[in-house]
Amino acid sequence: xxxxxxxxxxxxxxxxxxxxxxxxxxxxxxxxxxxxxxxxxxxxxxxxxxxxxxxxxxxxxxxxxxxxxxxxxxxxxxxxxxxxxxxxxxxxxxxxxxxxxxxxxxxxxxxxxxxxxxxxxxxxxxxxxxxxxxxxxxxxxxxxxxxxxxxxxxxxxxxxxxxxxxxxxxxxxxxxxxxxxxxxxxxxxxxxxxxxxxxxxxxxxxxxxxxxxxxxxxxxxxxxxxxxxxxxxxxxxxxxxxxxx
Length: 245
Description:
alpha+beta
């Protein structure tokens, strides 16, 4: 530990601009460089620790720089009170298997904590257009548009849950699901053509690209933590930590 502190002090001195190093002689500088070199040769794992810390900082910086878009986009679908103690943000794709696996946890969380939890839903149809085994194309973007169109009829959460529960989404299935939850299918189809819905989805796709730690869907943010994946146990731990007084 003493050696590490010495290294940190040494690198701090070396990091000063030249004009700030007027009092550091050539001999002193060579001594400091030797200390740094010898320490790193004896403890090469420090390099990986520094790299890991730097990557964590980059991840957090990318999130901090996008906070307004993450938390304050008025176009987002939000469930829960504005003054909720904890905000959960989820980026998802309706054809993502892992998103489907975490849906029950999210819905149960909304039901268990109606006053303390606020959820921001972020439609991120990253799987759209991929070819399935049967040769058909994935329609994630249409599914996202259908969910947002359902919101115009006051049934976003019902549509969201039904889409997540449904395997093999296609155009006919979208209509069947919409009808099953009491939507006016014709109106939904018309609203799906709203250019504002298309623009919102595109903006969310761009936002997703800005977030460095996002490697796919689902991507959750709870309090000051984030998680890529559907580890429900870890999500619950993150939630309970954020809910603590």
